[in-house]
């Protein structure tokens, strides 16, 4: 806190839950576009981190059918 006061910074707390508004989305082929509005101080990356689950994917290639 002393560092914040010494640099004349404001100490603000962020909301625990974010509530995006004006949400819209579209999907075409291999692209998804998501639009929404967040209040000041909130970050879109926080929303996407919670919504998108990374699923590891491994491809297997059949070397026998590969043409020379």
UniProtKB/TrEMBL annotation:
* Keywords on record: tRNA processing
Its GO biological process terms?
pseudouridine synthesis; tRNA processing
Which GO-annotated molecular functions does the record name?
A: catalytic activity, acting on RNA; pseudouridine synthase activity; RNA binding
* Any one of the GO CC terms: cytosol
Is Ribonucleoprotein set as a keyword in this record?
A: no
Q: Which domain of life is it from?
A: Bacteria
Kindly give the InterPro entries that the UniProt entry links to this protein.
PsdUridine_synth_cat_dom_sf, TruD_catalytic, TruD_pseudoU_synthase
> Mind telling me what this protein is named?
tRNA pseudouridine 13 synthase
What species is given as this protein's source? Answer: Vibrio ishigakensis
């Amino acid at each position: 806190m002393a560092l914040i006061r010494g640099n004349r910074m404001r100490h603000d707390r962020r909301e625990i839950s974010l509530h995006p508004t004006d949400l819209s989305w579209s999907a075409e082929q291999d692209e998804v576009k998501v639009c929404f509005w967040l209040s000041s101080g909130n970050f879109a990356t926080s929303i996407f981190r919670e919504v998108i689950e990374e699923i590891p994917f491994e491809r297997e290639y059949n070397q026998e059918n590969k043409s020379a």
